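ERR on first pass: missing label on line 2. Operator R.T. fixed the label and resubmitted. Corrected input:
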Amino acid sequence: MSEVLVLVDHVAGTVKKPTYELLAIARRLGEPSAVFIGGVDAAEAVADAVRGYGAEKVYVIDDSDIVGYLVAPMAEALQQLAAGKDLAAILLPSSAQNKEIAGRLAIKLGSGLITDAVDVAADGTTIQSVFAGSYTVAAQVTTGIPIITVKPNSAAPQEADGAGVVEHVTVTISDAAKAARVEDSRPRAATGRPELTEAAVVVSGGRGTGGDFGPVDALADALGAAVGASRAAVDSGWLSHTFQVGQTGKTVSPQLYMANGISGAIQHRAGMQTSKTIVAVNKDPDAPIFDIVDFGVVGDLHTVLPALTAQISRRKG
Amino acid sequence: MNIVVLVKYVPDVTGERRFASDHTVDRDGVDGLLSELDEYAVEQALQIKEQREDEEITVTALTVGPEDAADALRKALQMGADRAVHVEDEAVAGSDAIATSLVLAEAVKTANGGAVPDLVVAGMASTDGGAGVVPAMLAERLGIPQVTLASQVETSGTQVRIRRDSDAATEVISASMPLVLSVTDQTGEARYPSFKGIMAAKKKPLDTVDLDDIGVDASLVGLGASRTTVTSTTARPPRTVGEIVKDEDGTGAAALAAFLASKKFI
Ligand SMILES: Cc1cc2nc3c(=O)[nH]c(=O)nc-3n(C[C@H](O)[C@H](O)[C@H](O)COP(=O)(O)OP(=O)(O)OC[C@H]3O[C@@H](n4cnc5c(N)ncnc54)[C@H](O)[C@@H]3O)c2cc1C
Ligand SMILES: Nc1ncnc2c1ncn2[C@@H]1O[C@H](COP(=O)(O)O)[C@@H](O)[C@H]1O
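pass 2 clean. output:
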């Protein structure tokens, strides 16, 4: 069986859930190998983690020549790793950065590229959701090694015993690839909540919060949810851009999405329309968000949300 | 200094968007416009020109697209771009991002007298389903650095420094020209064309070129050269509207709690 490379999604060596989702998909396509680009110190821990999800090999690429630059060195490293291997596919978790890596890699390898897949079948057929979630597209790569970026939540992680044989790979990064430099990086403070794109429940607030996200935050915590926002809320400076859901923010596809004080503009819907269940609270009965809800409450979020949060706490009680 | 701004002509997001029988985006009889996200690119290019008023700077708007795509260039000229180049060739129809980046790479050079321009400015993504990969691919093809997804842009001399708000961190990224820069909608409102701008645009040069002019072999682009094939496009059934209740004296929260409980969310 041909190998399938899976780029490990991690923060400082702590493996993140999309990695396991991609390993599950990789097992449909061939023999999964995890590719860890990071600090060598973390290699053993990473190998232990991915072995439990079926990784047969774990390629470790020391990132000391890669961190601090943009995507070009990552693309070079993956190109050198792929050289001479019989690969069935290369899978990367979909993120802005990984899509750019995939784009450069596709040109280097002469490969076809599919981005933002929400599913990949055993024959390599990918499913994508386009036009603000109003169309589903099935596609296949026809040239070269298929390079596919896959959105979070596209598959359930599956535990499986993999050999997880660690192989250290040395790559040479060109000076040209290091031309764009990260001069300064201030990590975002942890919210203590699930990550927006990975959360099973997302509670969002818009302009209708009037800037008071207290009721939204409290409900999110009662549900163990991530907090999201409309662009109007972000543009008003109430939350940082990382919370924005929509065309120019995050795309989320949780089990439950709750839109509070959000009108439901097409650009917002583009980021949440594929959620399994959608609920909205809005003062205006004619708000377009109500066209796509499974359940809606016409009312003031400042009274409805605290009452709901209280009921949830009581039920848990 | 020469700046080339990449603008795409896309179907209006607020209109109905659909696929043609060959699974390409249906552009016939669909209202199109300059992609809103590329307006931010034009704006940033113009701001750089304005900030560096002592220098001679030419801003060229460039599009690859069908005949109507000239509309996108006109809008860019009205906003203040100095000249425009339209790559129009039937062979380009149906190109994927990889082929589009090839056409753009050659067109960018042709539009700049054969040389790589100092700065290529792009939007963060095409609003018609683009993945935000073209700028990185273009940088790869031109062999120059990319500084992408800027929420703030600063230039001084040949240095470009941007702020980027990524998921994990806020970063400051820098590189020297020539480079490809892409900007997000966080860079600040794009200007509206003024009456004066609209009148002036009529006199600005808008050149139309084809694949021969930019030296791209037609067999390398278009639907036939695509490295991916779309096997089906399916309209998602519209969501069926669920129950909508009016909150009266707390009934809304109770009804919502009951709904969430019925779905096992609480
Ligand atoms: C290129 C482009 C990209 C964009 N990208 C995005 C994107 O990624 N994400 C995004 O969200 N938007 C995006 N937008 C903006 C989008 O078009 C809308 O302007 C935005 O989504 C509106 O946010 P909102 O619903 O919070 O505000 P509004 O449209 O002002 O709606 C506020 C809603 O709150 C309700 N409300 C007010 N008070 C209360 C109350 N007390 N209780 C309950 N309800 C109340 C009102 O009835 C109203 O429906 C984009 C726009 C453009 C042009
Ligand atoms: N056909 C095109 N003509 C001109 N510019 C384009 C074209 N396609 C993409 N671009 C540029 O590349 C950016 C990202 O596009 P995409 O990768 O398709 O999301 C856009 O915002 C444009 O600036």
